[in-house]
Amino acid sequence: MPPNKGPAPGKFQNIQKDIERRIERAGRVEKRPDGFLVDRGYYRARDAVIAEHLEAKAYEPLVRHFRGWNWEVGDNDFLRDLTAALKRDKEWHHLKKLWDGVISKRERHFRQVEQLRAREPKAITAQRADHVRALLASAVKQLRDLAGELNQPAEAQALDRKLSRIENK
């Protein structure tokens, strides 16, 4: 019988479930008098689980998890660290999937801001709208640059066209 080369069953499949299992193992779940469960040490468990996944190069669950995060307002170290790992390992497919998620969220936010400004010009300042556009443009630039570095010229060209449309709106 060949050795099991995959991860342990259940491990490296779902980041959130791995975090919850870590908290439960550490005995950090408390039940309040009203019955509400409180996870003590959530952020520490989250950071440890993400680090484990990065070390194991379990990129698919990391990408799936981070695509659901709120990237409309900016980047963070998790996104930068995962991007660096994916770039180092030349994981174009995962990089594209991750950054497509970031771009999608920022595009939606940009459209919402533009629609609100069209209906109520005083609701959002021009400075705020420009900031939202700049965040979207920076994400597209990031993915375009990654495409260039990882020898994806067709993707880089498509992203250049997209960036031009964003900057000319």
Question: How would you describe the overall organization of this protein?
Answer:
There is one protein chain. The protein is mostly helical and about 170 residues long. It folds into two domains: about 1-55, no CATH class; about 60-165. About 65% of the residues lie in helices and about 5% in strands. It is built from seven helices and two strands. The chain has helices at about 15-25, 40-55, 60-65, 75-90, 90-120, 125-150, 155-165; strands at about 30, 35-40. A two-stranded antiparallel ribbon has the order 1-2. A hairpin with a 5-residue loop joins β1 (about 30) and β2. α3 packs parallel to α5 (about 90-120). The longest helix is centred in the middle third of the chain and has 28 residues, at about 90-120. It starts with 14 loop residues before the first helix and ends with a helix. Residues about 1-10 have low confidence and may be disordered.
